[in-house]
Amino acid sequence: MAPFGGLQARLASNPFCLAYPAMDGQAPVVLDAATAAVAVGKARVARANHQPLPPGMLLDDTGQPTTDPRYALGDPQGAFLPFGLHKGSGLGLFCDLFAGALMGGETIQPGNGNQIGRAHV
User: Fold this and answer.
1) Torsion of CA 91, 96, 99, 104, to 10 degrees
2) What's the pTM?
3) How far is CA 68 from CA 5, 39, 72, in A?
4) Residue (of 80, 73, 107) closest to 3 by Cα position
5) N or C: where does the chain have the smaller number of CB atoms within 10 Å of the terminal CB?
6) Complete DSSP assignment for the chain
């Protein structure tokens, strides 16, 4: 996922999940969303069905807006856009930072050995 205002993938399309427990047999409240404007699975379905994605969800390999899902899933590599503009970008950044800290590993940034795209698509 490209950070807000960015042209290249620098963040993973992190799952962001929150849950609030329920009491007395009621269902819990759960939010499970990606920080990108479109989930990877939906891009896969669009590509398999030879359908475009809606505008505003994806950049091509030159940083230009596109609706072609092939840029989300391989070569040439484009980038998902964050949902909610800067809000999704900020959530994606913190998901990446917290995941790196909790797992004792590195973030998804180039040069860390865990490149965007190939391992996370």
Assistant:
1) -150
2) 0.69
3) 20, 14, 8
4) 80
5) C
6) -PPTT-SS--S---EEEEEE---TTPPPEEEEEESBSS-HHHHHHHHHTT-PPPTTSEE-TTS-EE--GGGGSSSSP-EEPBTTTHHHHHHHHHHHHHHHHHHT---SSTTSS--TTTTT-
Tell me the two tokens of residue 90.
Answer: 């900020």
For 67-85, how does the pLDDT look when each residue is reduced to its tens digit (9 = 90+)? 999 998 878 889 999 888 7
The structure tokens listed for 21 are 């427990």
Q: Would you mind telling me the total number of residues written for the chain in this entry?
A: 121
Residue 104 CA: distances (Å) to CA of 38, 92, 98, 111, 115:
28, 18, 10, 17, 17
Burial of 11 (0-12, 13-18, 19+ CB in 10 A): buried
Locate tokens 């484009």: which residue?
78
Q: Contact 82/37 with Cβ under 8 angstroms?
A: yes
